[in-house]
Amino acid sequence: MTFLDFNFDSKLQDGLESMGYTKPTPIQQQAIPVILSGRDVIACAQTGTGKTAAYILPVINKMMASDHRHLNTLVIAPTRELAQQIDQQIEGFAYFTGVSSIPIYGGGDGAAWDQQRKALEFGADIIIATPGRLIALLAAGTINLTHLQHLILDEADRMLDMGFYDDIVRIISYLPKERQTLFFSATMPPKIRTLANKILTNPEEINIAIAKPAAGIVQQAYVVFEEQKGALLKHVLKTTQWNSAIIFSSTKEMVKKLDGSFQRSGLPARAFHSDLDQQEREEILRGFKNKQISILIGTDVLSRGIDVEGISLVINWDVPPDPEDYVHRIGRTARAETTGTAITFINEKDQRRFFSIERLIDSVIPKLPLPEGLGAGPAYEPEAKKKTTFKSGGSNGGKKPFKKRFNNNRNKPGGNHPKPAQ
Asked: pTM of the prediction?
């Protein structure tokens, strides 16, 4: 099957061909015909499967067949990074069509607010918005949604995790009841289905590869004590082949701490977190996409907020609390049928979490031996009530390593672990 089989408008097809799109992904094959038919859709597909094209291509095609141009489509996304990314993709798809789009998001200064408001006054066919900024504009009467025909919720599960349920319900109260609603989510927990039942009408349900990592990802893990992680990170970056990498941590504090270690080492790495202003975040993402920054350090918000080609290595400094977030983290690599490596550091407290991940993806992830000179790590006993044994071998004879042995920079400012590689 190719995109020609959808019989898109020739100008839209020209945009696809200019971007190198020839063969639709499974989610595109299933969703596009249903959306073209006018039915509501609830679709569950993991990150990196081509969801944006699955919902935006048929919407643009329907828009081109209409004689009346007005604000036609509202896309709601959880983060400004995702909103920007969707807007960039729409710009490429619609290059020859005349269809326009505007990203609307918070976090900027007053000038950014004015720029977005003026852009809305000139009109756009598609708005991609984060919930908070959209509510502010609706309350100010800046946006007229009277003629809206399509509502699209992207990364719906992430929006609910971030506490946007009430905001979404409030936004929907402004919308016309007669519309097509497209609901895309990577996971489908009960709270998502509850929301879907409220806003969808007789939807077609589509499920694609739920919670399964891409086949091209080589998954590996190390079982370590927390004090060993810094030295292990240095070893992984030295011995693994990679062009660009993302290091994930579950906390913003650890992201900042790792960033400090990399800065002292002089490596081209940058931290990405919510304390940065909008301009800094955009500059960091631009530098990472342009390969000026080779290592990005961030929390799980980053795991769904960017789409960058060529990421060959993902390192999980810790195990995410939600098993689904593991799939999203490692999904940053091996995109578009490429290959990549995902390595996770598992300490004693994280073993049960990692075991839950293995059950979710129905796969046992290989636990690699620690490199020589690092000592022994804890035994991998995720189902044990109390861990009392350690792996034998290593220079310490199977005993738990002393902190000072792996914490040579303990007394340095911000140093709770060894520096990354020089």
From this structure: 0.63
Give the separation between CA 311 and CA 324, rounded to whole angstroms. 20
Return the closest-CA partner of residue 41 out of 182, 234, 212.
182
365: which DSSP letter?
Answer: P
Work out the number of other CB atoms within 10 angstroms of the CB of residue 92.
13
Could you give the CA distance from residue 72 to residue 311 in angstroms, rounded to a whole number? 35
Torsional sign, CA 224, 228, 230, 232 = negative
Structural domains for the chain: 3-208 (3.40.50.300), 217-406 (3.40.50.300)
pLDDT digits (tens, 9 = 90+) for 147-206: 899 999 998 988 887 889 999 999 999 999 999 999 998 777 788 888 998 999 999 999
DSSP state string for 145-165: -TT--EEEESSHHHHHHTT-H
Comparing CA positions, the residue from 56, 84, 53, 51 lying closest to residue 72 is 56
- In whole angstroms, give the CA distance from residue 343 to residue 331: 12
| Cβ partners under 8 Å of residue 292, min gap 6 | 268
Please state the length of the chain: 422
Per-residue model confidence as pLDDT tens digits over 367-390 = 999 999 899 999 999 987 544 444
Burial class of residue 9, CB neighbours in 10 A (0-12, 13-18, 19+): middle
Could you tell me whether strands 101-104 and 73-76 are parallel, antiparallel, or unpaired per DSSP bridges? unpaired
